[in-house]
Amino acid sequence: MQADNFGFGTQIRKSPYFDATLRWGARDFSVYNHMYIPRDFGDPEQNFWNLVNDAILCDVAVERQVEITGPDAAEFVQTLTPRNLTQMAVGQCKYILITNADGGILNDPVLLRLAENHFWISLADSDILLWAQGVAVHAGLDVTIREPDVSPLQLQGPKSGEVMQALFGESISDLRYYWLREEQLDGIPLIVSRTGWSSELGYEIYLTDGSRGDELWEKIMSVGEPLGLKPGHTSSIRRIEGGMLSYHADADISTNPYEVRLGRLVDLEMDAEYIGKSALQRIKDEGVKRLQVGILIEGEPLKGPNTTFWPLEIEGENIGRVTSAVYSPRLKQNIALAMVSANNATIGTVIDVMTSSGKTRATIVDFPFYDPNKKVATG
């Protein structure tokens, strides 16, 4: 497939790995953070098995970085998130939420602290660069906010550790879950973190010189392929099994942290006056009117992820909607994340799902559906 076959125009950016992914079998792309992202390397079920049995390399340069530096960087970053960052060390990563004044979720990124006054916000799909720059205008804080030349890859799966050791040496195995370190690979400058969007053992490799993207991809694949590494794409099957949010699907600006059961990322007691603090206090005091749940959908295996929000009903009354659904070949079940009215969120409740092929039954269950304590990813 030729790069010229994609006709969205120059306003959709290509990653430093774009041409390499085409050579290695990428068949289709979607757009995320105004960039192309590979979504198809063949059978998505085989991609899932490659991930959970071996390892896959994914172009996730669409995870754009918002870089915040300057004397007041730490104070400014804390204004953006309700998660308490006072104990965050240099070299540590944290999963955070960015909220607006109403407590709505604007993004659920990973925050990386590279130095005392140097942070990256590794984004899900929304324009937080513009948000942060806007917040800074009247913040009265000395910060510089920009998008740096940084393009991550994800190396995920049980054999990812072996591949990383082959690339960087045995010392890389000392890198702890949600920590980062600076590395070089034959002179290519990198930041490496023990993070990823797969619920599997994995690493993210942040390239800090986009001119060397093709070279980096080929070096990783040449070392990793004999160890079982395959080119791939982020797996909807695995992330839904793991109960991981996909922004714009499972959460958006109208969703608050308590609805998606992420109250642990909200500190209402700390002194910092972050954006949305008073709204989040009110939401907690009043309680939520809806909750995220897991559901098992009966019937034949789904042919792919849902592309619309399927309504949910009890005795003909709408109680919510399916946000992400897929067939898990490992669990041999149709699994889904859904948002339902809080008074109907009880485990065991039987509901009707209006799928694209008609009405079927489902049952509310506990989730994540697989490895709920994240022993795979943290191990």
Architecture overview:
With 379 residues, the chain is α+β, with helices and mostly antiparallel strands. Among the domains are: 3-64 and 150-240, Probable tRNA modification gtpase trme, domain 1 (Gyrase A, domain 2, 2-Layer Sandwich); 289-379, Aminomethyltransferase beta-barrel domains (Elongation Factor Tu (Ef-tu), domain 3). It contains 9 helices and 21 strands. It has helices spanning 18-23, 44-53, 73-80, 128-137, 160-168, 213-224, 236-241, 277-286, 375-378; strands at 28-32, 35-40, 55-59, 65-69, 93-95, 98-99, 105-107, 110-115, 118-122, 144-146, 151-156, 180-185, 188-193, 202-207, 229-232, 290-297, 310-314, 317-328, 333-341, 350-355, 358-365. The strands form 5 sheets. The protein has a 6-stranded mixed beta sheet, with helices on both faces. The chain has a 6-stranded antiparallel barrel with strand order 16-19-18-17-20-21. A hairpin with a 2-residue loop joins β12 (180-185) and β13.
